[in-house]
Hints:
By secondary structure, the protein is mainly α. The protein is built from eight helices and two strands.
Amino acid sequence: MDFSGNTYQVNTGFGKPRFSKVEVVHIAISILVLALAFTLVYASRNNRFIMTAFERTFGTGAMAYLGLFIVCIGLVFISFFLHEMGHKFVAQRSGLWSEYRMFPLGLGLTLLISFTGFLFAAPGAVMIAGPMDDRTNGKISIAGPIVNIIFSAVGFAGCMLLNGDVLVVPFFLLASLNASLALFNLIPVPPLDGSKILRWNVVIWIAAVAVAAAEFLMLMRLDLYYII
């Protein structure tokens, strides 16, 4: 209870990470639907740099798409799930109630639009309840983009180390997806993370945007290839 007489449900784990059964189900459904949407987008665009790698690795036809789907599950887990868990764990360490909830309508639209070759991802978000100031809200908000910035850097490192090998493809997808997610979520428009980070600390927001933008622009300059 706060000084105004309002009551809040707080994290019963006293700062420790906790998952409810409902939350785990929502996470699993979101990851599978998003992975399918990414698979449909990559397949419909028929990007030969990407699809040839999967055809040569897993075989042509259905096997190539199955391989792409499996890789997309990994990409979504790293890029989307860990982004949301960044928010969740920082919120829980602050003593707040925090659980992921999927948006059924958003997931349906995501899957439907993916058939056109474009991706509009609105699978769900981490719900947070409890008293928090701008500083706490800003720290919770920046945790997600930081996860994406880190994994985009991992993707770039993999691209540099494995350029010329077919494994450069999943690392390229890792770099591009995370760079895009970081930059998008840092846009200072509610309810995106950027608006809450900017309200908390302008310097930190500028620094995060600069790094994410640099990673995104590097995507345009990558000269990648592989030999099969």
